[in-house]
Design a protein that fits this description.
signal, corticotropin-releasing hormone binding, 4% helix, 1 helix, globular, CRF-bd, mainly beta, Corticotropin-releasing factor-binding protein, 232 residues, ten-stranded mixed sheet, Jelly Rolls
Length: 232
């Protein structure tokens, strides 16, 4: 795994061992690379293929736009098919920071995944309210769980699970509406992986701002008692 620019080479010894190189960058950066040279025996079964994370298949050499761990992939098929191309999905290695998700009026799903248990504090939300024409569905500063619309639901989801595939996560909370002030309490997501997603139908300009921080030992213990599947 590396985040340093440079030239990287791999020469197989002829065995069936799998070698992987992860190229990483900050959540607001894109990774660019150029294949300068490769020598693959196609007649012997070698194959060079490009996949995004939602279409990974078996091959001898693969370039994956996303993260793979033990056969699980992020972004999942629920998120944008273009992987990280739209800078809408990110795997965040931070223990305490503030994130903002926006759809800019597009029909897309955006997910921030954190690879450890966290507390999520909602700072502000405007979901399923403001349209492109400037009209609003409601002016109340209130969140709701009734988020269905004509082209699907516009909502945010806080979820948790084991592994990278967010399509298998359990949802701790889902909501839409408006909130201009920080929430009084945070939500503990105590599994091995945590995710905050913004689902958008394309009818509204949605935005979500939240803060993540490590849970206390008492908060984590209470979560694991309520969700024993996260203890395995």
């Amino acid at each position: 795994m590396t985040g340093e620019p440079g030239e990287y080479w791999f020469t197989s010894s002829g065995s069936d061992a799998v070698c992987s190189l992860y190229l990483i960058a900050d959540v607001d950066k894109l990774v660019e690379f150029e294949i300068m040279e490769f020598d693959i025996d196609c007649e012997g079964g070698g194959l060079f293929t490009y996949f995004n994370a939602s279409t990974l298949a078996r091959a001898f050499i693969q370039v994956v736009d996303g993260w793979e761990l033990q056969g699980q992939l992020f972004p999942s098929s629920l998120d944008i098919p273009g992987g990280f191309e739209a800078t809408c999905n990110a795997l965040a290695p931070f223990e305490a920071t503030v994130f903002s998700l926006k759809n800019f009026g597009f029909r897309r799903n955006c997910t921030i995944q954190i690879v450890f248990p966290v507390n999520v504090l909602l700072l502000s939300a405007n979901i399923g309210v403001a349209s492109e024409t400037g009209s609003v569905r409601t002016r109340r500063d209130r969140l709701s769980v009734n988020c269905a619309g004509p082209l699907g639901a516009d909502y945010a989801a806080l979820s948790f699970g084991q592994g990278l595939d967010t399509s298998d996560f359990d949802v701790a909370m889902g909501f839409c509406g408006v909130r201009s002030k920080p929430a009084r309490r945070s939500v503990t997501l105590g599994c091995g992986n945590s995710a905050v997603s913004l689902h958008s139908s394309g009818l509204f300009f949605n935005s979500l701002r939240f803060e993540v921080s490590p849970p206390s030992s008492e908060e984590l213990e209470a979560f694991l008692l309520a969700h024993p599947q996260c203890s395995t």
